[in-house]
Amino acid sequence: MINSSFLDKIAQVLIQDYSGKLSDTIVVLPNKRAKIFLIEALKKQVSANILSPEIISIEDFIQDIAAIRTVDPIELLFEFYEVYLSVTEKSSQQSFELFANWAKMLLQDFNEIDRYLLDPTHVLSYLKDIEDIKKWGIEVENKTQLLENYIDFWKLLPNYYQALYAHLLKKGIGYQGLIYRQAVDNLIPFSKTITDKKYVFAGFNALNASEEKIIQHLIASNQAKIYWDADQTFLNDPYHDAGLFLRRFKANWKHYKSNPFEWIVNDFAETKNIQVIGTPKTIGQAKIAGTIIEKIINENPTASLDKVAVVLGEENVLVPLLYSLPSTVGALNITMGYSSKNNPAQILIAKLFKMHTNALSRNAKSYVLYYKDVLDILTHPLVEPYAKTTGLVNTINQNNYTFITHQKVMELNPEPTELFSLLFTKWDNGSMTVLQMLSVLLLTIKNNLSNDNEEEKITKAFVFAIFKVINKLINYYSQHTHIDKIDTLHAIYKQVIDLAEVSFEGEPLNGLQIMGVLESRVLDFDTVIVTSMNEGKFPAGKSQNSFIPYDVKRELGLPTFKEKDAIYTYHFYHLLQRAKNIYLLYNTESDGLDAGEKSRFITQLEVEKQPNHTLSHEIYNAVLPETAYKPMIIQKSDSVMVRLKEIAAAGFSPSALTSYIRNPIQFYFQKILRIREVEEVEENIALNTLGTIIHETLKVLYEPFIGKFISEADIENCFKLIDAEVLKQFKVVYKEGEIKKGRNLLAFEVAKRNVFNFLKVELESIKSGDAIKIIALEQTFQRTLTHPNLPFPVLIKGNVDRIEERNGNIRIVDYKTGKVEKASVILKTWKGLTEDIKNDKIIQVLAYAFMYENEAKGKPIEAGIISFKNLKSGFLPFIFKEEKESEFIVNETIMSNYLEQIVLLLQEILDKNIPFEEKVV
Prior knowledge:
Structural class: alpha/beta
Radius of gyration: 40 Å
Number of strands: 29
Low-confidence stretches: none
Largest sheet: 7 strands, parallel
Strand order of the largest sheet: 11-16-10-17-18-9-19
Mean pLDDT: 89
């Protein structure tokens, strides 16, 4: 018997003691999953064909006695609301959302009261008395209506309970506690109907009062036997939580006063190799679990993995674990469902709820949609390939639609597909219409998917899971028509969706077993890998979702967090009980998401270490590369050289030259590969957009004066045009973007202020006697640069913001909307001009001077910047400062020194042997 699994021993007992009447024997197990494993264990015990005993779970057994159908939590909530409305005065009735907040917790308490066979009137009146005592000291005249309502709520609890109990019984449905209470009431007549049946209860640990009463009755009437899986290490230790319940039953059950307690084993003290491994984060644990399994396979390639179990303390480890498993894992059985949180169909429905509920809350009549909500739906993988809305997405992005009316969306997409129409039909006709529309939408999506493609077949399974949930909601809503708010529907949908898990297909008896903690009950494995061994995960930690205070629970015999911890402790130690190799993985991060201290179970194993246990503790950290990032290096191929020649012929702009200095890779992407940035909605005006608006406004205001000297009257006239022109340019550049509120309104005012201040400075210059003649505005100039060191002539070409003649000098002006200091345009040495990006402004303005030099016809040239954020400094000219000498005018010496540096830069760009090398800042 040593080291055979618990189910093997049960199979042995069934064959030895019940062989003649197996078909009349019913085996009751804690869960349905163990049934397959017990049948397999029975197969090993027999060589001929036999009739199998009936094997059922405890829930099915209790339902059989009670003859009542169990109801899911959401349906129960709807039924309870019906009862609540019938019991509560109309003036005090709450909406479904408010009701649901407290009803869920109250239903849990009703459930516990019934499972433990307590008198509901006594318990619920007790709660009311506690609340009365709390408010004892408040004088009658100080009792507010709110306080009165609060006390009335507690008074009504017994009424709610009685009415709900009667209502559910009448319908033949019930929650778990009600079914248990009814089963106890039906026990005597039930046991009379099963005189020829024998029950075997196997593998239980924690039993509620109802289960205890039922099992003890059947044992006393010689209709049942119960077999425990108790290890003497836990049973004989009065403080060990793993044996808490079994010690109670052994001491209190009448049957054990004269009969032995079966079975007590001594498997935990056997030889075990326990490795405790800490690693940062969930992904680390998944990777290590994968590595352990790979090691097991490599050590024994022919062995089956069906005696290896990965027990996940937390379900979100599942997906990373599946990606971390070695390819040599053949068969695989996953007993957990894939969470609906990541189901693509669920994400689409959630986004639809977000878009439509937001539109309704803004203004149900105009139905204004937010562009991000619209784009989230149109670019969703289940929509994008089939809705034919590429044009609409581009229109929204290019025109900066931020908030867009439902009508406008329909106008922008004049030929909608059926899918598009279903997504964008208004949700203003009640919940039932919305649910029916969602049902049709999911069917349409399903029909778009192919059966030939494996991935699309999986997607269909996801869509079907959500389809079932929506249909379930249609069923509820058809029976409860008075609950009709979209917000309520959204709240209910969010709760129901947790039930919509997608099951994995697998062969339960073959290959690696991946399961949650509860699925591991009754099963034994040789190798166990447990993840998420952190406080708050394993064990789950305290959670007080109850109206019944802790001390009242203790007094009444209801389970508290102490009992819940004991259940987890039993599950954990049972996993270890017959295992030979155990790996316990935990997250070493003690703060942040998915974190917590190392589980107390690990500490308990270390403190209470058994003589035959080998226990090791390791910390694994990810291997960090010596260099965090390797800069990109791209060699210049023949096609790159052809492209460079094209650019040289078409024209290098000053900004192209400075982009190379900033980062050659950026130049390579933008100029060689011609990769453009993705067009996106600019929700808040970007600085470059604001700059364009100011540039364009000044161009329009000054255009009438090209070739003329400006007078004071001209500038005065421009002041009157600022508001209208800035608004016009905003419309041209920012298109449909919102400029009447928020940050964009501020940007609009900033643009007006910048233009106003610029004109003010200009007016003061004219008043102080400056003669200003506008020569060019926003004009493109070009000039070919030929030099013996260049492989071919290079055209320098660029757009100059403004060229003017001021007091006899040519002044070339570059507008900057950002802040530029005087130092940015002062140069002290020509050496290294093109090596430092700090010189980008100098390179730019001198390039403009070079392009315009021939047009100046010998007149002195100044080149510089006007910074709108530094207007008080006025025009910032390029200055070459050598010792104490400062040169403002761009003379021949300056130009020749500048060109020498530019040629060096162009030589580097055009040299085939110098690759584009990324600059990492």
